[in-house]
Design goal:
By secondary structure, the protein is an alpha/beta fold. The chain contains six helices and 13 strands. A hairpin with a 3-residue loop joins strand 11 and strand 12.
């Protein structure tokens, strides 16, 4: 049975990600121990909340340096994806720098609230194994105020008054701005694809 290290960043969505992974039939190790993270078959870095606060939590435990050396498939979810990038307009601290890009804040506009919260449609870009079997226009669930602009690493886009990166990949690092653990059958398919990488 493969073991997935679910990095304990102190964020609120750890339990829901854990249950979604258990439904996939894998062993889930919720941990901030660098040795257990580096020895896992797959790694997931979830996150909800403030950029600087979440980074401070993982820096204290030594997780940051461990993550920089990972070679196995690794996925950041929501704030976890943004922390994999170089920086965010939300915080003062640098991100992990494992993915190119800097998170920006959505512009406030009449009739468009920030945060972007609810179901929105994916527009896949190219062919990536993470999105195999996920149709264009599939709905996934978002809760976020910051986003990464589309880039060559974007594997799926979405639109909320402006286009943004919904999912990305750079080397062995994937990111989902949406919450696959809250995205019903589509999210379960994406998690299954990740576990099959």
């Amino acid at each position: 049975m493969q073991r997935v290290a679910l990095i304990n960043s102190g964020c609120a969505n750890i339990a829901s990600v854990r249950y979604a992974l258990l439904r996939q039939g894998v062993e889930v190790d919720v941990t901030a121990d660098p040795k257990r993270i580096t020895s896992a078959d797959k790694v997931i870095f979830p996150g909800v909340g403030s950029f600087d606060y979440a980074l401070e939590a993982v820096e204290k435990s030594g997780v940051v340096e461990a993550m920089r050396g990972l070679t196995q498939p690794t996925m950041g979810i929501c704030l976890g994806m943004q922390m994999l990038a170089q920086a965010s307009a939300e915080g003062q601290k640098p991100g992990l720098g494992l993915i190119k890009g800097q998170a920006q804040r959505f512009d406030d506009a009449p009739g468009r609230s920030v945060p972007h919260m609810g179901w929105n449609q994916l527009e896949p870009c190219g062919d990536d194994p993470l999105l195999r079997g996920v149709e264009a226009g599939a709905y996934v669930y978002f809760v976020h105020s910051y986003y990464l602009p589309p880039s060559p690493n974007t594997i799926a886009r979405c639109d909320y008054g402006q286009p943004f990166t919904a999912a990305l990949r750079q080397d062995n690092f994937w990111g989902c701005q949406f919450h696959p653990e809250l995205s019903a059958n589509v999210g379960a398919k994406i998690l299954s694809n990740f576990l099959a990488l």
